[in-house]
Amino acid sequence: MMAVAIVTGASKGIGKATSSLLKEHGYTVVSISRTMPEVGDMRISLDVTDKGSVVKVVEELVNKFGGVDVLVNNAGFGVYGKFTDTSLDEEEYMIKTNLVAPIVFTKLVLPHMLKKGSGSIVNVVSEAAYVSTTTLAVYSASKAGLASFTNSLWATVSKMGIKVSGIYPGPVKTNFTSHPSFAGMKTNIFDKYAVEAEDVARAVLKGIRTGKREIYVPSRLKVDPYFLKLSSIMQEITYRLIRRYF
Ligand SMILES: NC(=O)c1ccc[n+]([C@@H]2O[C@H](COP(=O)([O-])OP(=O)(O)OC[C@H]3O[C@@H](n4cnc5c(N)ncnc54)[C@H](OP(=O)(O)O)[C@@H]3O)[C@@H](O)[C@H]2O)c1
């Protein structure tokens, strides 16, 4: 029987590329997003912050397939702007989407994976988990929370046969910046340095297969956390530069 993979945020960008890649690699792909996804063996329209519906959908999937082999928590968005100017309602919704929903999905699929003694959980985090700019304060906080959750989960269940991986992309060419708040973005680093959604999808597949705790896209970004954690001097300089220019 083919392995069953849930991909959230699958209507666009990284999620859509991931659903396509997993299908190519023989997974039975369950694609989820608010607008109906175009790719997937099962396509479900669902808001990942709607906990009651998420519980129902995951129960139905477990009953239909006898479990879930792969969970890719990818659905997410950013609210851009200085914390002094952004909307609290939007930020609360963002925390529910980027952080609470992955925890809920994980809580629901993990017991079935543990029963089988196998499975993969891949969380699409962000470089922003480690590098906080002045214009993505709550987004960074949501991703730092997701990074922390991912690391803790990795430490808890990777010795029980479950592969857990966090993906840390820098800028990616997707619809991410189409959120209205990005209209005020001054320096568009996305155009200059962004990688393709397919590059991140390949990293997700690597995470599913290896359970590597952190995967950076592009891989040179892996210096970021060390850079920030190990050198307090460099950290101070980095944040001073951020305060000045971003
Ligand atoms: N693009 C970047 O530069 C970048 C960098 C680092 C990390 N990331 C992360 O990568 C992930 C995917 O983003 P992307 O860049 O591919 O952006 P995207 O093109 O805007 O795609 C976001 C996906 O998430 C779905 N989504 C958003 N809110 C949802 C909700 N409440 N319920 C269900 N689905 C929801 C969207 O579908 P619907 O609107 O149809 O619901 C869409 O399919 C996010 O977690 C993002 O934080 C992106």
TrEMBL record:
<dbReference type="Pfam" id="PF00106">
    <property type="entry name" value="adh_short"/>
</dbReference>
<protein>
    <submittedName>
        <fullName>SDR family NAD(P)-dependent oxidoreductase</fullName>
    </submittedName>
</protein>
<dbReference type="InterPro" id="IPR036291">
    <property type="entry name" value="NAD(P)-bd_dom_sf"/>
</dbReference>
<keyword id="KW-0560">Oxidoreductase</keyword>
<dbReference type="GO" id="GO:0016491">
    <property type="term" value="F:oxidoreductase activity"/>
</dbReference>
<dbReference type="GO" id="GO:0016020">
    <property type="term" value="C:membrane"/>
</dbReference>
<comment type="similarity">
    <text>Belongs to the short-chain dehydrogenases/reductases (SDR) family.</text>
</comment>
<dbReference type="InterPro" id="IPR002347">
    <property type="entry name" value="SDR_fam"/>
</dbReference>
